[in-house]
Fold this sequence. Notes:
The complex is a heterodimer of chains A (113) and B (113). In chain A, the strands form three sheets. In chain A, strands 2, 5, 6, 7, 10, 11 and 12 form a seven-stranded mixed β-sheet that branches. A three-stranded antiparallel β-sheet of chain A has the order 3-9-8, with no helix packed on it. A two-stranded antiparallel sheet of chain A has the order 1-4. In chain A, β6 (42-49) and β7 (56-57) form a beta hairpin. Chain A starts with a strand and ends with a strand. Chain A has strands spanning 4-6, 10-13, 19-21, 23-25, 31-38, 42-49, 56-57, 64-70, 73-78, 87-94, 103-104, 108-112. By secondary structure, chain A is mainly β. In chain B, a hairpin with a 2-residue loop joins β6 (56-59) and β7.
Amino acid sequence: DVKVTQSSRYLVKRTGEKVFLECVQDMDHENMFWYRQDPGLGLRLIYFSYDVKMKEKGDIPEGYSVSREKKERFSLILESASTNQTSMYLCAGSNTGDYQPQHFGDGTRLSIL
Amino acid sequence: DQQVKQNSPSLSVQEGRISILNCDYTNSMFDYFLWYKKYPAEGPTFLISISSIKDKNEDGRFTVFLNKSAKHLSLHIVPSQPGDSAVYFCAASGRESNYQLIWGAGTKLIIKP
């Protein structure tokens, strides 16, 4: 199983700040994902990556960027935080291949004031 | 347009009885379906999956049923236990989604003692 660790459980930042959310997986797996979860909306994919230095936009990439310099680490960046980015952020990893379940970290509850 | 719908935001079930969580999808090209369970302040945990070549998959107290003609799947939990109280998400995947997971909005299951 993939173990996924997110560096912060709770984070409070101010509007306009640049925010970094870090995620590390402890298996040698290529696939990593960033989601946000909001009540009544399920999980929405922000960005994903199938390999080092590779990134693909998900459904809601606006206002976000990502970095994948090493296979085990996938960072989500809020370039200039806004209050509508207050949310639960979830990182996931999965094995390569179709039909592989994604395994999630415990999430970061981010509040933008 | 939501491709995966969980129409019940919440469900309350007596301990020991059967819990049935429902999920509908609109895209007939989806061919792999998953259920995840999420406790507050934790990431979703993979529970059970089913591919479109099957109509039933069972794992202990959890059974998923797939009705392709109705584009409907359900998760049965028998018997329900207090620890089953959580939010349950269904997700779908297939070639048209580039094998990314498309998520429902979730159903909050409450098991009453």
